[in-house]
Design brief:
- There is one protein chain.
- By secondary structure, the protein is α/β, with parallel strands linked by helices.
- 32% of the residues lie in helices and 22% in strands.
- It has one domain (2-236): Rossmann fold.
- It contains 7 helices and 8 strands.
- Strands 1, 2, 3, 4, 5, 6, 7 and 8 form an 8-stranded mixed β-sheet that branches.
- Helix 1 packs across helix 2 (26-42).
- The longest helix has 17 residues, at 26-42.
């Protein structure tokens, strides 16, 4: 699977009450997709070993832990992407002060059923994406799954710098990694344009991001593009 979360996906998540319908943000859409996908993969009977990449003060990890799973949040709490800089107290999961891609010895080879990330990979430098993916392949058990929900902007015109920036990143996400394969052939490609079927961040939320980040280049992209999320799933072979 390598595509964009659609409104159909979102409506299914809302019908199943995975998230509140009072929050129109992209983060809430991603949380709902992640929870729904995780329930489909591992159920709620527990006994699985999972990693959340860069979870910060994770919303989803708390829910996964409540299903009697062991979950490890791998994060350095350095504030990347406006994330937290302090570790949360009294959480129901383990915290490892590292990044996936650092090949930490605290994370054992072939030991995890699921690795997932929500709104993290878009902050990984382009030249570190391959390293991050190889570390994921190292950590997963055979048959284990990797889910990345990745913020991206989609445009109706591909001929400007913003579209080129995101196309370049999509090309990097699509590069083959030894030991991993897409469970469904990719439907999204670097030349894909925005489609009305895509679930999107609300314009109000994009304005809030504009005020928070104050980056002229990306704020212009927010004015003319749509904030969406890639849904990408690989399996360890």
């Amino acid at each position: 699977m390598f595509d964009i979360i659609t409104k159909k996906d979102l409506f299914q998540v809302l019908d199943r009450k995975r998230i509140s319908d009072a929050n129109p943000s992209l983060k809430n859409i991603q949380d709902g997709f992640a929870v729904d996908w995780l329930i489909g993969e591992i159920g709620t009977s527990g006994g699985k070993n999972l990693i959340e990449m860069g979870g910060g003060n994770s919303r989803v990890a708390r829910r996964v832990a409540a299903w009697d799973n062991k979950i490890t949040n791998v994060d350095k709490f350095e504030g990347v992407g406006a994330g937290p800089i302090e570790k949360p107290d009294e959480v129901p999961y383990e915290i490892i002060n590292s990044y996936i891609g650092d090949f930490s010895e605290a994370l054992l080879d072939s030991s995890y059923d699921i690795i997932y990330s929500i709104s993290v990979v878009e902050h990984v430098p382009l030249n570190r994406i391959g390293c991050m993916m190889r570390d994921c392949a190292r950590l997963l058990r055979k048959g284990g799954k990797l889910l990345h929900l990745i913020d991206t902007y989609m445009f109706d015109c591909p001929d400007f710098a913003g579209a080129d920036y995101y196309s370049t990143r999509i090309k990097e996400y699509l590069k083959p990694i030894e030991g991993l394969e897409f469970i469904v052939p990719p439907a999204l490609n670097p030349c894909s344009k925005f489609s009305c079927e895509y679930a999107t961040n609300s314009p109000f939320e994009m304005w809030r991001w504009k005020i928070k980040t104050k980056g002229e280049r990306i704020n212009h992209w927010r004015e003319i593009g749509q904030g969406c999320s890639i849904k990408a799933v690989w399996a360890k072979i």
